[in-house]
Amino acid sequence: MTNRVHKRTRDDHASEVAEDYVEAIGDKIAANGVCRSMDLVQEFSVTHATVNNTVARLQRDGLVTTQPYQPIELTAAGKRLATAARKRHEIVKSFLEAMGVSSRTAAIDSEGIEHHVSKETLQAMKKILKNGWPATER
Length: 138
What we know:
Layout: H1 2-32, H2 37-44, H3 48-60, E1 64-65, E2 73-74, H4 76-98, H5 103-113, H6 119-131
Antiparallel strand pairs: 1-2
């Protein structure tokens, strides 16, 4: 059991950066019509080299397309990943707020939790958000 738990955590860590980047790219495109490398430099407070390396990996993995000095576009796979990451993020943030966590703290905490929450836990969070807390827990 322990090996499976640790493997899942390692796998989650491996996908975190990709999910954060495609989510941010999707958000920038939605807000501004385009996403440029500089937007990501500012968003993540990292260097141009870091953004360029990460975008190159995303491009290699089929999540984005771009050309030198051109905006970054999400592929269909990138859009699906960004949408899934955004939904998980919003569910976790809303759940934390429903527990009484401040909006500011919920926004910060959900940024990490969203990558590690299981489908089962996410479904339970959605159920509680929809139906309220179980009577046995009140």
